Amino acid sequence: MTHASVRIHTAPGIMADGHSNNNHVPVLLSFSAFSRPSSVPVGSGYEVLIQKFLSLYGRQIDLHRKFMIQLYSDEWAQYIDLPKGFIISEKCKLRFVPLETDVTILGNLIPATTVFFCCDMQERFRPAIKYFGDIISVGQRLLQGARILGIPVIVSEQYPKGLGSTVQEMDLTGARLVFPKTKFSMVLPEAEAALADLPGVRSVVLFGVETHVCIQQTALDLLARGFEVHMVADSTSSRSMMDRMFALDRMARTGIIVTTSESVLLQLVGDKEHPKFKEIQNIIKASAPESGLLSKV
């Protein structure tokens, strides 16, 4: 027997097994040489536990590295990996384990391990977002490149009932998933399920609006799950350029790679002899608009 029940999450409202207090479960959270007692709500899964670990050990955790959570097993007298979809309903001991990452590959983009996230490029944002026409133009370049290179695209729409659908200029043909949301982050069950169906994906190329809200929260959530995030600076904006500037700075400081559309597309091709190089070259032949996105305020 283990210290905790590990269950596949099939329905809400999981009850505790007699070991919880006020609908919370005591947990011992260990990282490196440290261990701290804490508690989490009954039925907590991966996302809640990651946030709890980050709140306790955030300054010690290198977010450039991937990581996993393990559960102590009495049966095996050691920590074991938690399966996908687990929830916790009993007192337990958990360990946060950074995985070894080859630092020489950090920042590299390979089509086979990359997915594009297009965030909330919707009609109602057009009059409010600075240089919206320019970021749409660049976003369309990215979508074209994704189709040429066979890279999956996941698209979110923030409250489409009130804010409308993705703008017509953005051709979503072939998108793996287009889903509505009300949460600011794109990292929701629909997107996580789509990612789970893409084994081997390591890098997420992220673009859309607003830089300091949905983009930033999505990037941080992806980073916390071990993905390498490439944020496309010339295809993201906000209503306020000051908000945009500070969000870009914060993301860069947390290990998110702030890059440009041309850099992303050429990195994915990697070689003039790539069979798709000429098609990508046609996309970037005219430079992406710079507009006022280079302004600091």
TrEMBL record:
Start and end residues of each Isochorismatase-like domain: 114-262
Pfam family, one: Isochorismatase
Span of the signal peptide: none
Family, similarity comment: Belongs to the isochorismatase family.
Annotated protein name in UniProt: Isochorismatase domain-containing protein 1
Lineage: Eukaryota, Metazoa, Chordata, Craniata, Vertebrata
Gene name per UniProt: isoc1
